[in-house]
Amino acid sequence: MSGSVPAKPPPVNAARQACAIWATRAALNTSSESQMHRVPLWRRAAVWPLAALVRLWWTTLRICVPDEDRRVVELQGQPTIFVLWHNRLFMAAEVVRRYRRGRPLYSLISSSRDGSWLAAFFSSVGLCAVRGSSSRSGREAATALVDVLRSGFDVGITPDGPLGPVYEMKPGALIVARRARTRVVLAGMDFESSWRVASWDGFHIPRPFSRVHMRFEAVEAGALDERDEAARRIGRRLVELNPDRRPAPVRRRA
């Protein structure tokens, strides 16, 4: 019998493993009335070049975060709901990679076939998807996100998505936070230089090698008691944390 030392197992991607575990659990508890479209392997392969380009793009950005805000975003004691405007989504996965390493971030994505492309991209850049529809069944979407939080994972919510109006705070994030009894962190991103897409939200794409100033503020649980007032107050604060240095381009009608 050989006395050789067993080979060391390959490193495990904790975030990806957690995504797979939760997705399996969700699939086992999914009713036939709400079947989700799976992401086929060929679709993952198709988006890989774009994902690789975006990951390279992120490495060129100079991100500045105040020390106090860094402590807020890096706190690992409990699952967290990150609230950010839809037009700041380009930076979501990089926030996870730099400051929440090992903790997967889940976001709600349509269960349509078109949503499978976005889910495949999310998977390629290190994010996880909860498949559903906030517009068709808000209660089911909120329940799915609460289940993720109770499983110990983080959730990202864009309160003005998926179709706007831009910078209008909808109460979904607060409903989820109150049901899950977990903390909420507001994410702010100020791009010194960015391109803006002619979309409904004027989506920001930071220019390579540009500077991005980030802010992270925790919201106390007691501040969520009055839902409508809390939504207005948090919406105003999110606007303050996310200044636009350039106006969004005007969308042309087809």
Q: Mind explaining what this structure looks like?
A:
The structure is a single chain. With 254 residues, this protein is an alpha/beta fold. It has one domain (39-241): Rossmann fold (3-Layer(aba) Sandwich), CATH 3.40.50. It is built from 8 helices and 9 strands. The chain has a 7-stranded mixed beta sheet, sandwiched between helices. Strands 7-8 form a two-stranded antiparallel ribbon. Helix 5 (113-125) links the parallel strand 3 and strand 4. Helix 2 crosses helix 5. The radius of gyration is 19 Å and the shape is globular.
DSSP strand (E) fraction? 15-25%
End-to-end separation: 75 Å
Structural category: alpha/beta
Task: Give the rounded overall mean pLDDT.
Answer: 83
CATH class descriptor: Alpha Beta
Task: Give me the number of helical elements.
Answer: 8
**CATH fold description:** Rossmann fold
Query: What Rg, in angstroms, do the CA atoms define?
Result: 19 Å
Low-confidence stretches: 8-12, 26-37
Please give the domain count. 1
Name the overall outline.
globular
